[in-house]
């Protein structure tokens, strides 16, 4: 510090040592006025995609106002997948090197739930086939298959004399000696003369006879009478047995290998000639891949939760038959003879989950294959169709029954969606992502835009409620006087602000114009937010698409759902959604009249969060991939859409078809929503999160749900 030399040494040491070893946050503080690119790098998002369609889908995920979607819309080539994925989509015809013991928990579970009774059926059919005499060869087959299905692991079914093995041999090491081109021409000529063979072959072509492949012989087992006895007596029974085992194991998801085992047995093994089948044990020292007819070493795999069929997740695919079942029992058993109203409500409300998945996947498929304008129209049209179907159906049912109870349920569902998207979805994503990645960072600038829009949304939605409390009169249901006590002449209970009873003109002259004004301002604010984040300030997200992998090597991407199929799925799922929502609302009446649970709680939980289950799963998957920014945007986008799109649409619907919907919320909805937005914005301020912050959000959400659970029923709803 006392000489210039010391200052130079200190500056040099700072440049070479401090900037190379200290964390980037500290380096940015030591810059003292210098411009560092670290702050800009924190907001930069790099997208890695396999092809252009997937890159477009990933880019759409970061666009404001769109529902975030997890999962590919194109088919991934099997060559670029991991070994785990290759095992998931294997058809059980390839024998690979087995590591570890075959006595696993999953294989033991197979024996307990499937193996013993499938083998028992084979052992019962075996003597029956021997009694027919001509089917004795199939009796032997049943005995072999019974022993095989009792413990199929470590065994393979091969076609005798036709086993193909592909040895994984390594190429020999070869060295290439390059000639030195710096020698003279004379030396090159002498080298050619010295290395030339004494006898050279003539340049005319030589014909080498190639033997013709033997003609394939037609199997004669189809002409044998025992085959027809087998097809009449044994095969139909085994088809039903294997079909039952296949359905059960497929619905359990994690036991899909058992389903593949049974399906391949019915379609291939049992239709082959018995003499051509050979069951043998696998060689543990196998060092090559072998193609066989059937081989299964694992009965269970936990990774089957991500198994897809034509891009459809296995859970959504398995839940789709429940949609058909709910429609059948809902429209056939009108008098509740076979099924109660609670059962119909449960099946109908559960059917919403796969339909929401199909609608979301259809939106993602069309958006990924179209430009931004088409994607925006599809998102705006179908993005809120699930919730809007519930709300409009409930309002129509309440108008038909001449009761305000359904309107209160709709308002509770709106509030429950806000609370779940602001508290529960970000909280559960922070917990799961924080457990795996300890601390996660997100784009605080984009989160700030979403937070500002949430404040605008909450202020606009609850402005009529605050207006009624300011200018309305206090109404008390029951007031009694105490005889002999002149200081306290009346004791009033159940006092509240109810402008509809005190001054009906207040709604017509003041509150309704205010509601229509808000219905115009909120979508306008939403549109301004779109222009801000997508056009004028798109650098907030700073999305960078890295080099596309696999797209050029494997040709054009194969899309699971083309545009026409995605549009057909959207329309069909929307119509089915309307039917299931109608059944849910019709069968919810016994729960509203005879249940001890508050109607508030039913609205904020079942009707609010069940349609959002696919979004919750998407947010959790984003968090597990350390992409907490998209996890938080999942909840923010839904909450903004509820306030700025869905509520204005309900107001517009009520303007054309008066169902008595007034944008006045109870006090519990008002204060719970305001507190949730303030807490959420406080958590998102620093741009980083961990599992503790997520726990705080989830605990506050559970406290609010307990508040709704113990709250008294709305005044317009019957109480027990």
UniProtKB/TrEMBL annotation:
<keyword id="KW-0109">Calcium transport</keyword>
<keyword id="KW-0812">Transmembrane</keyword>
<feature type="transmembrane region" description="Helical">
    <location>
        <begin position="108"/>
        <end position="138"/>
    </location>
</feature>
<feature type="transmembrane region" description="Helical">
    <location>
        <begin position="345"/>
        <end position="365"/>
    </location>
</feature>
<feature type="transmembrane region" description="Helical">
    <location>
        <begin position="372"/>
        <end position="392"/>
    </location>
</feature>
<feature type="domain" description="Inner membrane component">
    <location>
        <begin position="105"/>
        <end position="155"/>
    </location>
</feature>
<feature type="transmembrane region" description="Helical">
    <location>
        <begin position="659"/>
        <end position="684"/>
    </location>
</feature>
<feature type="domain" description="Sodium/calcium exchanger membrane region">
    <location>
        <begin position="345"/>
        <end position="462"/>
    </location>
</feature>
<keyword id="KW-1133">Transmembrane helix</keyword>
<keyword id="KW-0597">Phosphoprotein</keyword>
<feature type="transmembrane region" description="Helical">
    <location>
        <begin position="228"/>
        <end position="254"/>
    </location>
</feature>
<dbReference type="Pfam" id="PF01699">
    <property type="entry name" value="Na_Ca_ex"/>
</dbReference>
<feature type="transmembrane region" description="Helical">
    <location>
        <begin position="630"/>
        <end position="653"/>
    </location>
</feature>
<feature type="transmembrane region" description="Helical">
    <location>
        <begin position="447"/>
        <end position="467"/>
    </location>
</feature>
<dbReference type="Pfam" id="PF03733">
    <property type="entry name" value="YccF"/>
</dbReference>
<feature type="domain" description="Sodium/calcium exchanger membrane region">
    <location>
        <begin position="566"/>
        <end position="708"/>
    </location>
</feature>
<keyword id="KW-0813">Transport</keyword>
<dbReference type="GO" id="GO:0015369">
    <property type="term" value="F:calcium:proton antiporter activity"/>
</dbReference>
<dbReference type="InterPro" id="IPR044880">
    <property type="entry name" value="NCX_ion-bd_dom_sf"/>
</dbReference>
<feature type="transmembrane region" description="Helical">
    <location>
        <begin position="307"/>
        <end position="330"/>
    </location>
</feature>
<dbReference type="InterPro" id="IPR004837">
    <property type="entry name" value="NaCa_Exmemb"/>
</dbReference>
<dbReference type="GO" id="GO:0006874">
    <property type="term" value="P:intracellular calcium ion homeostasis"/>
</dbReference>
<dbReference type="InterPro" id="IPR005185">
    <property type="entry name" value="YccF"/>
</dbReference>
<keyword id="KW-0406">Ion transport</keyword>
<feature type="transmembrane region" description="Helical">
    <location>
        <begin position="591"/>
        <end position="610"/>
    </location>
</feature>
<feature type="transmembrane region" description="Helical">
    <location>
        <begin position="566"/>
        <end position="585"/>
    </location>
</feature>
<feature type="compositionally biased region" description="Basic and acidic residues">
    <location>
        <begin position="180"/>
        <end position="195"/>
    </location>
</feature>
<feature type="transmembrane region" description="Helical">
    <location>
        <begin position="691"/>
        <end position="711"/>
    </location>
</feature>
<dbReference type="GO" id="GO:0005774">
    <property type="term" value="C:vacuolar membrane"/>
</dbReference>
<dbReference type="GO" id="GO:0012505">
    <property type="term" value="C:endomembrane system"/>
</dbReference>
<feature type="region of interest" description="Disordered">
    <location>
        <begin position="180"/>
        <end position="202"/>
    </location>
</feature>
<feature type="transmembrane region" description="Helical">
    <location>
        <begin position="412"/>
        <end position="435"/>
    </location>
</feature>
<keyword id="KW-0472">Membrane</keyword>
<feature type="transmembrane region" description="Helical">
    <location>
        <begin position="514"/>
        <end position="534"/>
    </location>
</feature>
<keyword id="KW-0106">Calcium</keyword>
<keyword id="KW-0050">Antiport</keyword>
<dbReference type="InterPro" id="IPR004713">
    <property type="entry name" value="CaH_exchang"/>
</dbReference>
<protein>
    <submittedName>
        <fullName>Cation/H+ exchanger protein 1</fullName>
    </submittedName>
</protein>
């Amino acid at each position: 510090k006392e000489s210039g030399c010391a200052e130079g040494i200190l500056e040099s040491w700072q440049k070479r040592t401090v900037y190379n070893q200290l964390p980037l946050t500290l380096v940015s503080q030591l810059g003292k006025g210098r411009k560092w690119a670290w702050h800009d790098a924190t907001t930069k998002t790099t997208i890695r995609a396999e092809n252009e369609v997937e890159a477009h889908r990933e880019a759409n995920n970061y666009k404001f106002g769109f529902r975030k979607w997890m999962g590919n819309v194109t088919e991934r080539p099997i060559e670029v997948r991991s070994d785990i994925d290759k095992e998931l989509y294997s058809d059980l015809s390839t024998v690979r090197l087995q590591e570890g013991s075959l006595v696993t928990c999953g294989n033991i579970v197979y024996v307990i739930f499937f193996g013993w009774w499938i083998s028992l059926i084979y052992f019962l059919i075996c003597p029956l086939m021997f009694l027919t005499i001509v089917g004795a060869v199939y009796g032997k087959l049943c005995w072999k298959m019974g022993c095989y299905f009792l413990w199929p692991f470590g065994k393979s079914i091969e076609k005798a004399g036709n086993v193909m093995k592909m040895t994984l041999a390594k190429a020999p090491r070869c060295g290439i000696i390059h000639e030195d081109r710096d020698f003279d021409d004379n030396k090159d000529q002498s080298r050619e003369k010295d290395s030339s063979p004494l006898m050279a072959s003539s340049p005319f072509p030589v014909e080498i006879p190639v033997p013709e492949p033997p003609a394939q012989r037609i199997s004669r087992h189809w002409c044998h009478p025992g085959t027809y006895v087998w097809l009449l007596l044994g095969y139909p029974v085994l088809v039903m047995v294997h079909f039952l085992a296949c359905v059960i194991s497929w619905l359990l998801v994690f036991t899909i290998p058992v389903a593949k085992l049974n399906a391949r047995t019915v379609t291939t093994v049992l239709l082959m000639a018995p003499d051509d089948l050979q069951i043998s044990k696998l060689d543990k020292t196998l060092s090559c891949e072998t193609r066989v007819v059937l081989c299964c070493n694992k009965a269970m795999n936990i990774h089957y939760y991500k198994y897809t069929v034509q891009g459809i997740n296995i859970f959504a695919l398995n839940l789709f038959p429940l949609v058909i079942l709910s429609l059948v029992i809902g429209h056939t058993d009108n008098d509740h003879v076979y099924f109660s109203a609670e059962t119909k409500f449960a099946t109908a409300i559960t059917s919403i989950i796969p339909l929401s998945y199909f609608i979301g996947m259809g939106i993602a498929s069309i958006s990924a294959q179209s430009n931004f304008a088409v994607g925006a129209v599809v998102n705006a049209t179908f993005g809120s169709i699930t919730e809007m179907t519930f709300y409009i159906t409930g309002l129509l049912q309440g108008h038909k029954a001449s009761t305000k109870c359904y309107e209160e349920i709709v308002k509770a569902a709106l509030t429950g969606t806000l609370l779940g998207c602001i508290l529960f979805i970000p909280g559960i994503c922070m917990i799961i992502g924080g457990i795996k990645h300890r601390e996660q960072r997100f784009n605080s600038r984009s989160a700030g835009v979403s937070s500002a829009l949430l404040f605008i949304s909450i202020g606009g939605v609850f402005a009529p409620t605050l207006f009624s409390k300011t200018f309305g009169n206090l109404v008390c249901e029951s007031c009694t006087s105490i005889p002999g006590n002149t200081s306290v002449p009346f004791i009033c209970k159940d006092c509240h602000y109810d402008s509809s009873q005190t001054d009906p003109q207040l709604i017509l002259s003041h509150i309704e114009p205010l509601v229509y004004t808000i219905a115009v301002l909120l979508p306008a604010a939403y549109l301004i937010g779109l222009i801000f984040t997508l056009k004028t300030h798109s650098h907030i997200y700073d999305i960078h698409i890295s080099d596309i992998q696999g797209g050029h090597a494997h040709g054009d991407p194969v899309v699971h759902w083309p545009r026409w199929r995605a549009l057909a799925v959207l329309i069909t799922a929307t119509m089915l959604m309307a039917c299931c929502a109608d059944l849910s609302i019709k069968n919810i009446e016994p729960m509203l009249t005879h249940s001890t649970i508050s109607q508030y709680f039913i609205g904020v939980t079942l009707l609010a969060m069940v349609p959002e289950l696919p979004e919750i799963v998407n947010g959790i998957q984003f968090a597990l991939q350390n992409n907490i920014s998209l996890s938080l945007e999942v909840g923010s986008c839904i909450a903004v859409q509820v306030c700025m799109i869905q509520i204005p649409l309900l107001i517009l619907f009520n303007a054309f078809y008066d169902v008595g919907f007034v944008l006045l919320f109870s006090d519990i909805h008002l204060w719970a929503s305001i507190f949730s937005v303030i807490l959420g914005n406080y958590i998102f301020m620093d741009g980083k999160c961990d599992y503790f912050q997520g726990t705080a959000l989830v605990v506050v959400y559970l406290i609010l749900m307990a508040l709704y659970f113990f709250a008294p029923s709305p005044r317009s709803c019957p109480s027990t």
